[in-house]
Hints:
Layout: E1 9-12, H1 18-29, E2 33-38, H2 42-52, E3 57-60, H3 66-80, E4 85-88, H4 102-134, E5 137-142, H5 146-149, H6 156-176, E6 181-188, H7 194-203, H8 205-209, H9 220-231, E7 242-245
Parallel strand pairs: 1-2, 1-4, 2-3, 4-5, 5-6, 6-7
Amino acid sequence: MQVNLTNKVVLVTGASRxxxxxxxxVLGEAGASVAVHCNSNLELAQKxxxxxxxxxxxxxxxxxxxxxxxxxxNAVLSHYGHLDILINNAGIAxxxxxxxxxxxxxxxxxxxxxxxLTAPALLCRLAIPHFIERKEGIIINISSRAAxxxxxxxxxxxxxxxxGLVALTKSIARAYGKQGITAFGVAPGFTKTEMAQxxxxxxxxxxxxxxxxxxxxxxxxxxxxxxxFLASGLAKHATGATIDINAGSYVR
Length: 252
């Protein structure tokens, strides 16, 4: 089985590095035109778009700003004329000590929710009418193992935001399936990315491996290949589901 995404336009948020970069690359290999979103690494995003080819293009937006999220989708639609697949991958993880100043804790919480949950919700809300008009569309939201297993006290906001993303995905799948829209979640566990490097540097890779069932940590490509399959349209009847990719560290 070979996935062919030729002539498909895909927006991938947070695509300049890590899991998002791997997703963009794999989709490009399948023939897709990728709208490569980044927050600040525009040069990296532009280089990636050039490597991918297929009229891929970099788009910069701070998804902590609701207006910027709306402008991002409008810019993608303006450039390509249509959108086939929306992949909400961008996310942040802020460590917030429960004993820290209450105002700062709330700021961290609000920022996490803005990027991890509100921005995906806004992008979905804006894409759905376009998908309804075209009578088809695929949404893939990158959640986290933390949505199901929970996380440490310092990452309450992160886990809560990712749990909300799972509920958002289910609701869209149930509400819009008959209008040609399918929605899926992908929930990675600890994945070997730049974002995770601080943990690896502090505790060592062996410490992280003790928590999983396999002998090696999950790589971004492990997530990207699953996303590409979901983007193919071949998993239509799995709409509403969230796929776990956590090396057996949490089995449900």
